[in-house]
Amino acid sequence: MANITKKVSWSSRGDESGAAGEETPLLNGSEQSRPLRQQDSARGRPKEIPHNEKLLSLKFESLDYDNIENQLFLEEERRMSFMAFRCLEISRWVICGLIGFLTGLIACFIDIAVEQLAGLKYKLIKENIVKFTEAGGLSISLLLWVALNSFCVMWGSIIVAFIEPIAAGSGIPQIKCFLNGVKVPRVVRLKTLVVKVVGVIFSVVGGLAVGKEGPMIHSGAVLAAGVSQGRSTSLKKDFKIFEYFRRDTEKRDFVSAGAAAGVSAAFGAPVGGVLFSLEEGASFWNQMLTWRIFFASMISTFTLNFFLSIYHNKPGELSNPGLINFGRFESEAMEYNLYEIPLFIAMGAIGGGLGAFFNFLNYWLTIFRIRYVHRPCLQVMEAMLVAAVTATVAFIMIYFSTDCQPLGPDHTEEYPLQLFCADGEYNSMATTFFNTPERSVRSLFHNPTGTYNSLTLGLFTLTYFFLACWTYGLAVSAGVFIPSLLIGAAWGRLCGILLASTTSTASMWADPGKYALIGAAAQLGGIVRMTLSLTVIMVEATGNVTYGLPIMLVLMTAKIVGDYFQEGLYDLHIKLGSVPFLHWEAPATSHWLTAREVMSSPVTCLNRIEKVGTIVDTLSNTSTNHNGFPVVVQVSGDDEPAKLCGLILRSQLIVLLKHKVFVELARSRLTQRKLQLKDFRDAYPRFPPIQSIHVSQDERECMMDLTEFMNPTPYTVPQDTSLPRVFKLFRALGLRHLVVVDDDNRVVGLVTRKDLARYHVGKHGLEELHLAQT
């Protein structure tokens, strides 16, 4: 039998299962340490937790993606007619349309706000630079640039660090975890949406090396989670609609649609949005969901384009492809030849290597932040420091640049800076730094040959690479797509210039803009490791199907090379968050493990007719804090062990206690209203804590019949089932609890998400992670 490396940690071993808190015995026979009680662990752990990426956090619970088919649910389903089910299906399409419409509106608001505020900032700085270029004193212009950037970033960081920390970053890893079945706290709250939208505006206007696309994906997911429930728990407003969809299974599908609508609004790529949700986000899928998500994506793109056309006084033109406009590649010079395919693949390998290096640096930087920059005030100070350094580096690069280009009558530069260039010329370095990242990418794609020299592109690539790496992970709302594309476009265009300079016939390499496109795809693919969806996104965003094959080859090469050295950026941040994320397959070397060895045991079970006091004490036990309880029944004499007859959740028990569904009260009050599924849906998703439920001493002696409310057909496995088979069943069905029984249907253990996620293949083979109270 193979060995498992057990990672030593100070953490406790408690989870959301029905286990009583004991650790699974070590499979290699090592001595097992006594587990700490949860409250003792909280008192004994250090104030500053030394981060260890080999831990799984106990703060994450699972979502209930498996429908609870109790008697209430089955009775409701049987009462519904065929027309009622058709109306529900129509309601799903209506909700997806609303999700797309609102996501498009949010994208429009972000775009207009960034355009207006960034325009004011750059115009003010440009006027100041022009004034002091002749009179002297450009240091004042530098201070103004630093002050404006720091001021904007300060407010963007304050609202994230002090009001809603989950709104930091792009939000894609969090949404990916949510769709995987992990309940990430506060990830789809209304406050998160507001902070996300306002925060990304401040981040982009503040000149950070960030993009708007990641926050748009998160924003779409939050909108979907709220719209699909027909109410706002934050505002305490219930519209009494869409009540049927108030469960995790339905919300998951709508969140997938919201994420796709966010991608579509960001890039003008409806098909790419669907594929992104499928490839990078969703862990569960079906055919009808594909069409509904595509519908939401189309509505999102149309809404954004419609309102932006009105804003730009062009109501008849819907030509803007999305929030991030790359422009259209339509020139004949953009055609490629077969002999360039090996060059494109080589650029994909370079992008994969650079992406792995980017992820490596950001990985250790994030660990440093977790350990030392965890206080909100320090996070705000770091964000302001990065904003100041970014402005200073940009100013210095522009100041010392000698790359001057003629300013023609049909120039596309938004804010051309002359600085020390001759009259009728502009500073080429300023085109990259003195602009929003989206416009810089567009200029690298479309500006004619000779717009940039090699030194300008090389220096910009080097500096912006490290600035973007430093920026990702700050306490600000920010995405990594556009910075990655900008870095890749810069070194890709540099490759095109160098190729043209090495041959006597420069025309054979045509427009360097196509190498900027290939480099952008390679760099982004090397960082986030997306393939199919990113190919379609790039094709849709640029409007050029010709480059579909080269981009796909580049992205596949970037992924293969990048995966050899380091994981993708989103997967790294999921791991650093100690999230119990379940991948598509069980670890390759885990076939010799069985359910008996991975399950949690012993299990806290409840009788089918249980004493109320016992239920209250079980739910109030802070040392376990379980969320699922097998229900057992005595089939013969008291000496025989009880057998499994169902499973009930903590949330269900709390609703039953709140409504005092006791056997004695039901007998004494004949007119008592029968509990319905609506009572459970009204309490979803913020079920009250057990401490808020008052149960008198007399009520503790009452009995509660769980027969009508428990799930009488929970999924079970024999204790000799292999780990890959347990994993496949748990992962494919979206389970929260999987009961392990013996040959006589007696409960011997219970498998939860954390029991499966703690096994992974490491440097020393199959390793077992510890659970930590982080």
From TrEMBL:
It comes from the Eukaryota. The keyword Flavoprotein does not apply. Residues 1-12, 27-39 have a biased composition (Polar residues). It holds the Pfam family Voltage_CLC. Gene3D superfamilies: CBS-domain, Clc chloride channel. It is found in: Membrane. GO terms for molecular function: chloride channel activity; chloride:proton antiporter activity. It is a multi-pass membrane protein. The keyword Chaperone does not apply. GO terms for cellular component: lysosomal membrane. The chain crosses the membrane at residues 93-114, 142-163, 193-211, 254-277, 289-311, 341-365, 377-400, 464-494, 515-539, 545-565. SMART domains: CBS (SM00116). Belongs to the chloride channel (TC 2.A.49) family. This is Chloride channel protein. It comes from Poecilia mexicana.
